[in-house]
Amino acid sequence: MSIFLNNDSKIIVQGITGSEGTKHTALMLKAGSNVVGGVNARKAGTTVMHKDKDGNDVELPVFGSVAEAMEKTGANVSVAFVPPAFTKDAAVEAIEAGIGLLVIITEGVPVQDTAEFWDLAKQRVDADGKQITQIIGPNCPGIISPEESLAGIIPATITGKGGVGLVSKSGTLTYQMMYELRDLGFSTAIGIGGDPIVGTTHIDALAAFEADPETKAIVMIGEIGGDAEERAAEFIKANVTKPVVGYVAGFTAPEGKTMGHAGAIVSGSAGTAQAKKEALEAAGVKVGKTPTETAELLREIYPG
């Protein structure tokens, strides 16, 4: 099994005609994803040509709205390749249409915009009180369930299917950990993004991996700034029975300086790599000082 994304997922691309949307639609199709169309209000009614994983031509329709795309194709996943200034509008459109999973790749989305569409998504629930639209991102590489589906920009050739679940704030560290553990394989790897507000948290992913019978062990990658890792440590201690190993990027980061990701800023002892390491270890999570060491720690508790 996998979390959030599988063989049955039908994907649309918001911004399918732009340069990034074009490039990554091709790569998602090559990875075997079931991309069924795209959205661009200015080019509604046209089509774009791509190749599927077997090299066959695929003609994808471009729709004027997410709602129309869902109605015509049955899409339940959208990947947004939209400039920062228009990301909020794209997200609101997808949420109001009731898309099941929204993956926002865009970097540089204003935090207030994210807060507003995140709040909208939280308010929209089904009859059982469950949030209708699961958001991943923004400023993230997306999600891959190897040999099933890719929604985002994660390279699909790094690893195959296996029993490891991965949740990471960092895109490049997602790729490195997938490479380090490529012989074990992954159920799902999810890059949640490093902004101060993200749609899917470490805790959301940990809960999903805990509930997934095919995920046997979990790798959690965090980074300096905020308290997401500390909160995740509390959740692991109380709710996660599967083995978890961790890595926290930023042990050498200077205090008070923003490091790359908007959320990666340290204030005093709060948010430091050492503080996060100690919180995770107190919850029984082994924490590596490097990605390679973290991979070795996982092998000790889950040889595959």
Across the major sheet, the strand order is 3-4-2-1-5-6-7
Distance from N terminus to C terminus (CA atoms, Å) equals: 16 Å
Query: What shape does the CA trace take?
Result: globular
Quaternary status of these chains? single chain
Binned, the helix content reads 25-40%
Gyration radius, in Å: 19 Å
Question: Brief overview, please?
Answer:
The chain has 304 residues and is of the alpha/beta class.
Describe the structure.
The protein is α/β, with parallel strands linked by helices and 304 residues long. It is 33% helix and 24% strand. It contains nine helices and 14 strands. The strands form two sheets. Strands 3-4-2-1-5-6-7 form a seven-stranded mixed beta sheet, sandwiched between helices. A seven-stranded mixed beta sheet has the order 9-8-11-10-12-13-14, with helices on both faces. Helix 3 runs parallel beside helix 4, helix 6 (202-211) packs parallel to helix 7 (228-239) and helix 7 (228-239) packs parallel to helix 8. The two termini are 16 Å apart. The mean pLDDT is 94.
